[in-house]
Amino acid sequence: MSEYTLSVTCADQKGIIAAVTHCIASGEGNILNLSQHTAVDVNVFMLKADFSVADDFVRSDFEKAFSEVAGKFKMEWKLFDKALRPRVAILASKTSHCLYELLLKHEDGELACEFPVIISNHSDLAGVATQFHVPFFQVDTGKGKVAYEADIQTILEDYQVDTVVMARYMQILSPEFTRRWAYQVINIHHGFLPAFMGAKPYHQAWHRGVKIIGATAHFANENLDQGPIISQDTIRVSDTCSIERFVQLGKDVERRVLFEALKLFLDRNVFVYGGRTFILR
Amino acid sequence: MSEYTLSVTCADQKGIIAAVTHCIASGEGNILNLSQHTAVDVNVFMLKADFSVADDFVRSDFEKAFSEVAGKFKMEWKLFDKALRPRVAILASKTSHCLYELLLKHEDGELACEFPVIISNHSDLAGVATQFHVPFFQVDTGKGKVAYEADIQTILEDYQVDTVVMARYMQILSPEFTRRWAYQVINIHHGFLPAFMGAKPYHQAWHRGVKIIGATAHFANENLDQGPIISQDTIRVSDTCSIERFVQLGKDVERRVLFEALKLFLDRNVFVYGGRTFILR
Amino acid sequence: MSEYTLSVTCADQKGIIAAVTHCIASGEGNILNLSQHTAVDVNVFMLKADFSVADDFVRSDFEKAFSEVAGKFKMEWKLFDKALRPRVAILASKTSHCLYELLLKHEDGELACEFPVIISNHSDLAGVATQFHVPFFQVDTGKGKVAYEADIQTILEDYQVDTVVMARYMQILSPEFTRRWAYQVINIHHGFLPAFMGAKPYHQAWHRGVKIIGATAHFANENLDQGPIISQDTIRVSDTCSIERFVQLGKDVERRVLFEALKLFLDRNVFVYGGRTFILR
Amino acid sequence: MSEYTLSVTCADQKGIIAAVTHCIASGEGNILNLSQHTAVDVNVFMLKADFSVADDFVRSDFEKAFSEVAGKFKMEWKLFDKALRPRVAILASKTSHCLYELLLKHEDGELACEFPVIISNHSDLAGVATQFHVPFFQVDTGKGKVAYEADIQTILEDYQVDTVVMARYMQILSPEFTRRWAYQVINIHHGFLPAFMGAKPYHQAWHRGVKIIGATAHFANENLDQGPIISQDTIRVSDTCSIERFVQLGKDVERRVLFEALKLFLDRNVFVYGGRTFILR
User: Do residues A255 and D100 touch, judged by C-beta distance below 8 A?
Assistant: First the structure.
């Protein structure tokens, strides 16, 4: 027995689900979970189906059969073998809470990926990497962005990385880098976007006197803090809190939101259309 | 154009979704939303599909066609025409917050039902009924449970009621009544079940020193406060709150939870199996 | 027995609480609740004390005694007799959810004020006012802002109003009006400020793809949606929600937040300093 | 400059706060934060004051002066020097999430204590202890409860432990042990008490069909899962979750609640009266 996830997007029309599920059933697949949504205002249909197959399943046969369905409906589609786990690199700087969260949840079996490498612009977190037996590389930002991003790119290629998670990595990636890794880099911002973009969001929040703080995980793109949002959460704060307390309280939200975003991404729940995401659960 | 909801339950097996959606597509239906879940431990498959059809759709033809599919898979199934809105009676006593919530949400178009009648064991809420132009009946509990429940039953029949909502109705329904209206009576309990069953749950909660209070909407059955749970919510409370403050804070939770339960029920999201519910969203 | 609330602000220094509470004790007051906070970054001390006194308490004697303490510490202070309930006018337009919330909570004894008058630029809510026996006035915005705000001002004076609540009143108040009523006008914005200022915040939120929506109650000032925030709350939303569903879900947050803000204000929990509020609970 | 916390409980009466704060001011203390509450139904007054003093502060002088005040009002009171950090032992078994949470938050400076020793009935977590440089002891439960609890007691004494935290320690402590350490042992239960006492609370919750799961931190006493509750939290769950998913989701709640309970305890916010706690913030 093995399991696959099929992801489909196309213009909305009659009979899509029937055609897709008939094709899966014809391939002797058993659907374990199916989610679908039509974004009415843009007439876009999205579908995600998890299905199991017997050992005699031939992927290429299924893909050939499904291509015909896809052609008829003008679908964009992807098929994921759940046994092939994405290889995710973690970028970090000095603070450890997001890094620990990902490594601990991974250890507990909650993240369907590998973490082959951790890259940082500081040495502080090398010990954490060692504890979890993950290779650690420190890049030298002193040599200029073009040069050290080339170093990062080399490491990512060496370790055959598919996806990058910025676990409070405190450097801005270049437009060249984010374009090359479009919709494959997940960042965590310590503010409730679109409020409090840019630097020191907790300071901004405290001075504005907001009663709730939050964090936002999003795909990094060439516009700082403006990529498609994947996950967000908030907590109520008291006006008797200092900014330092905001920072502490915010850490719990950040790690939770970043973990949730990566999990949704790995479980293939994230669809992107028209500059925003649609999460199908 | 009209819309239908199809609700299906059966033992899990291969090809159910394909068969169901093929049948809908064959009837020229366009699936707007499909939710499905398999409760693995009991091997029960549940599916809910909303679909739209053109004006030449013939319900009896579809039902005949679907019966064959259903027979093959040994399904239990129901088809709901969304234009036929359930007729829901509200039972209330003296407090108005749940009653107002239902009537106001209904006025705002959030509840797909009619409220043909309000029944109470007190006269206090007659004015609210008048404001919203709903017939109001006061039943006399002094005549004994058998007699006044017979009065209620007569009113429900006169007004062709399908479903009953207890909006803080402070009388216990007889086993005869709840059996007759099995899975058609929704009650709100002002405690986070299964904690704090029975009377005065806020008093129980305060004395136990809990830090969170809640409310629970459930189907009424012959075991007090033990019917299948439909919806729950909680809020954090401070130890500096009095019991009276617990009661006030709890009202917001109660009205929210009761409304949510009724909405889930009317939208056909509630499946019952093995003494518990499964909510498919 | 009667109850008073004393509200104090001054530069932080040693012995303030001792001096204040000694003065209350000397006046035979019994402190029921005391909250205090020092905003360290601006060195501002704030204190709120609720105390009860016997029937022979003479307010002017206490005020004279406290003036000496206040002079020594350079305090700004106010003394509120809880028996004198503020007179709050409600401004509304067409939607009823915030108006109902205030009237229902008031009926339940949760708001320590009077609602002597409801003013609207439409006639839609006249019936609600009648139900709750509150005088209702419709102002004519067609005659220009200066003229109809003069009408509002006249009504507020006729009804001896202290405070104004904008319960989804869909007109922008003039700077003259908000300055005249500085820190006495509470507005509800249907967005999580400072994100989504201005018109149609739910539309903005949906298109941005946020996963959480919120509402913000704040003092109205001459800068639209930028007055000091009093209360905020948020709820998680699904990407499968339409904008219309955002609007429905948001209503629950709006009414909750507006109610909370008015309650905090009436209970004298709201301190304003440096363009932001500090809520002492 | 050093800081102290004064904790006071007595029958409610006039002038307590004035007397306490006057005494602190007389000792040249500057109150940084004061919280107080009167549990009206039992007429118990509770007060917590944080204050700073200059280097010439003599603790014994203050205690002598305060004893007179305390005698007059029949107070129970404690004075804590914030520089003397409690020594907290952690008991754990096999699962690491609560242990990591405490160690990481401690590393981040959020817990005002020392962790001098970790004790377990298994060897699994020895590596975590090593990573954080905390001595680790494995006790042998095979020798019987009396014997291995004596071993634990010896370790606690050797390391001069004040307080014990059970971080998912899966053994029931004897009544002798909990009585000896009354109100000094904090446990985390993976259910929303008082619902789901005893073993396998997530299994109980799933089968009951609840829509919300939670966790509860409480003082351990001789009645299993019935000690005074310190902290609780909940999360909404979907009916499409398996029990295994409940367990995963619950871990986040457990670690958050246990951390909060320990923090409240260390910050001297926890008062116990009449078998329940009162948290003064």
Answer: no
Please answer yes or no on whether D40 and B240 come within 8 Å at the CB atom. Answer: no
pLDDT at C86 over 90: yes
The residues, ordered by sequence, that sit 6+ positions from B267 with a Cβ below 8 Å of its Cβ are B5, B112
Asked if C76 has any chain D CB less than 8 Å from its own CB, the reply is: no
Neighboring chain C residues of D33 at a CB cutoff of 8 Å? 36-37
ipTM associated with this complex:
0.94
Chains near B with 3+ CB pairs less than 8 A apart are A, C, D
| Whether pLDDT at B42 is above 90 | no
C42-56 tens-digit pLDDT: 899 999 999 999 999
Nearest to C267 by CA among C254, C253, C281: C281
CA distances from D34 to B78, D62, D272 (A): 62, 18, 18
In this structure, the number of other CB atoms found within 10 A of the CB of residue C142 comes to 8
Domain boundary among A66, A81, A96: A81
**Is the confidence at residue D83, as pLDDT, over 90?**
yes
Residues D229 and D257 in one domain: yes
Residues B132 and B49 in one domain: no
Chain A with chain D: Cβ pairs closer than 8 A: 19
A38, A240, A265, A269: best mutation site toward chain C, by most C Cβ within 10 Å? A240
Contact residues, B window 195-234, toward D, CB-based 8 Å cutoff: 195-196, 207-212, 214, 228-229, 231-234
My answer on whether C55 and C145 are in the same domain is no
- Chain A contacts of C281, Cβ < 8 Å? 238
Query: Is C196 in Cβ contact with A194 (below 8 Å)?
Result: yes
The partner residue sitting opposite D131, judged by closest CB among A107, A131, A248, is A131
Distance from CA of A131 to the nearest CA of B (A): 37
- 3-state secondary structure (DSSP) of residue A274: coil
pLDDT at D193 over 90: no
Specify the DSSP element, H or E, that contains D33: strand D30-39
Range of the domain at A33: 2-81
Residues A220/A178, Cβ–Cβ less than 8 Å: yes
User: What is the radius of gyration, based on Cα positions, of chain C?
Assistant: 21
- Asked which of A106-120, B128-142, C103-117, C183-197 is least confident by mean pLDDT, the reply is C183-197
Lowest mean pLDDT among A99-108, C33-42, C162-171: C33-42
Chain D residues whose CB is inside 8 A of the A107 CB are 96
Q: Which chains touch C (3 or more CB pairs under 8 A)?
A: A, B, D
What pLDDT shows up at residue D195? 87
Residues C31, D17: C-beta atoms closer than 8 Å: yes
What pLDDT, in 10s, does the model give residues D42-63?
A: 899 999 999 999 999 999 999 9
Task: Give how many domains chain B has, as a whole number.
Answer: 2
Residue type (1 letter), A11: A
Residues C96 and C234 occupy one common structural domain: yes
Instruction: List A residues 16-45 in contact with B (Cβ-Cβ < 8 A).
Output: 16-19, 21-22, 24-25, 28-38
At D76, which helix (H) or strand (E)? Answer: strand D76-81
Please report the pLDDT score of residue C189 as a whole number. Answer: 95
Does D24 sit within 8 Å of C18, measured CB to CB? yes
Could you say which of B212, B229, B231 has the minimum Cβ distance to residue D232?
A: B212
Q: What is the DSSP string of A174-229?
A: PHHHHHHTTT-EEEEESS-TTSS-SS-HHHHHHHHT-SEEEEEEEE--SSTT-SPE
Contacts of A31 in chain B (CB under 8 A): 16-18, 36
Backbone angles phi, psi at B168, to 5 degrees: 60, 50
| CATH number, domain with residue C244 | 3.40.50.170
CATH number of the domain to which B15 belongs: 3.30.70.260
Residue with tokens 């990902």: A102
Q: Is C179 on the interface with A (CB under 8 A)?
A: no
